[in-house]
Amino acid sequence: MRSNVFRDINARRAVVYSELERTVWRYVSRNTALEPQIRMQAQMALNKTPREAAPSAIKNRCIITGRGRGIFNKWRMCRFQFRLHALNGDLAGVDKASW
Q1: Average per-residue pLDDT in the chain?
Q2: Which CA distances in Å does 78 have to 10, 54, 56, 72?
Q3: Using alpha carbons only, what angle is made at residue 90 by residues 88 and 96, rounded to the nearest 5 degrees?
Q4: 14: helix, coil or strand?
Q5: 52 falls in which pLDDT band (50, 70, 90)?
Q6: Scanning 21, 67, 70, 71, which has its CA 20 to 30 A from the CA of 59?
Q7: Which percentage of the chain shows pLDDT scores above 70?
Q8: Residue 1 pLDDT more than 70?
Q9: Could you give the CA distance from residue 39 to residue 18 in angstroms, rounded to a whole number?
Q10: How many CB atoms lie within 10 A of CB 78?
Q11: How far apart are the C-alpha atoms of 39 and 62, rounded to whole Å?
């Protein structure tokens, strides 16, 4: 596999691993009922979390080629690979349209 596919896999793992912690820090920093000092500390802790642990770091990529555009989310394939696999009959429930 390509390096950008591995990078995407690691980013997805990091997001899952730190999701709860980031959610807690985010809610504490946005809670206006708390003291400003506590909110500031929560914001600083949120800023210290790794950049790759942010959900926006995840980019949908083709699991076969690593292409970052034209991805079908359900199958995680780019349109080229989706077409090849669909025509070969590798994807269950996908048929060539004819009308």
Answers
A1: 89
A2: 20, 24, 20, 6
A3: 55
A4: helix
A5: confident
A6: 21
A7: 99
A8: no
A9: 19
A10: 21
A11: 40
